[in-house]
Amino acid sequence: MREAAVLVPLLVREGTPHILFTKRPTTLRHHAGQYSFPGGSRDPEDPTPLHTALRETREELGIDVSGVRVLGALDEVPTLTEFRIQPFVGVIPQGVEYRPSPDEVEFILEVPLAELMNPAILRSERRSVRGVEYEVDFYTYGSHVIWGATGRILRNLLRLAS
Question: What is the DSSP letter of 130?
Answer without folding.
Answer: T
